[in-house]
Specification:
Blueprint (H helix, E strand, L loop, with lengths): L2 H5 L5 E5 L4 H12 L3 E6 L2 H13 L3 E6 L5 H15 L4 E4 L13 H28 L3 E6 L24 H20 L5 E8 L8 H8 L14 H8 L10 E4 L6
Parallel strand pairs: 1-2, 1-4, 2-3, 4-5, 5-6, 6-7
Length: about 260
């Protein structure tokens, strides 16, 4: 097959949770550029509909749907809406994350809330959308984790920056679990024409304090933080036939920070 055909997502229906966030927008843009029909879903239906309209104005086939992944009924409604409107699902980008825990010594109730959304809720939507992809004939699931699910925090990044550096443990905890869950799902659904992979991004530039950017970038061989385009190519690879033999992998994109 021609390499451009391998990377094409024409006639593919893709769901992106957290599609209105920083990485979510970049992921959606890359999928749209590759020809996919993209559904972006989050709790805030007004925000997601505005983002969808902006993408459609740019020429991409993007649709907004509401979901609260901590609410079982909401997850099932999303699944039913996808079936009713599109008849199938080919790819699920599991990108939504909640950050209720504000630091190491935060109330333990914040950790519990994080697990309700980022562990139990995430597993629920992952299982439901996996079933829909299998029912549709197969496809791909891409979990978005983090390098902080692989490595301990580098506290020197926060040197000289008051108010930064109190890392919340729930974020590391659930991202590490998501990497192993990816491998579990790949083995559990062997023979069903579905692939499971994980992407663990490094630090994304988001107008952080200048001192933080300086501390961080001097450790990175490429000399910079990630930008909004850095995830797009990998997303398209793992969503398309170009990645048809990649399964059960976690791919770190950190500019060589942990080389």
């Amino acid at each position: 097959m021609n390499v451009m055909q391998l990377f094409s997502l024409k006639n593919k229906v893709v769901l992106v949770t957290g599609g209105a966030g920083n990485y979510g927008r970049s992921i959606t843009e890359g999928l749209g550029e590759a020809g996919a029909t993209v559904i972006i879903a989050s709790r805030n239906i007004e925000a997601i509909e505005k983002v969808s309209a902006d993408f459609r104005a740019g020429g991409w086939d993007v649709h907004g749907m509401q979901v609260d992944q901590a609410d079982k009924a909401s997850v099932l409604r999303l699944k039913e809406n996808i079936i009713r409107q599109f008849g199938k699902l080919d790819v699920f980008i599991n990108n939504a994350v909640s950050r209720p825990m504000k630091g190491y010594n935060a109330p333990i109730e914040q950790f519990d809330e994080s697990m309700r959304v980022n562990a139990t809720g995430m597993m629920d939507i992952l299982r439901e959308m996996t079933g829909l992809i299998i029912q549709s004939g197969g496809g791909s699931v891409i979990n978005i984790s983090s390098m902080m699910g692989m490595y301990a925090p580098v506290y020197s990044n926060y040197d000289g920056i008051p108010g930064m550096g109190d890392i919340a443990p729930d974020y590391c905890f659930h991202n590490a679990g998501l990497i192993m869950l990816t491998r579990f799902m790949a083995k559990t659904h062997a023979g069903k024409n579905i692939r499971f992979n994980c992407i663990s991004p490094g630090g994304l530039f988001n107008n952080q304090p200048e001192k933080f950017v300086e501390n961080y970038c001097k450790k990175v061989p490429l000399g910079r933080m990630a930008n909004n385009d850095d995830i797009k190519g990998l997303i398209v690879l793992l969503s398309s036939d170009a990645g048809a033999y990649i399964n059960g992998e976690n791919i770190l994109i950190d500019g060589g920070l942990y080389a």
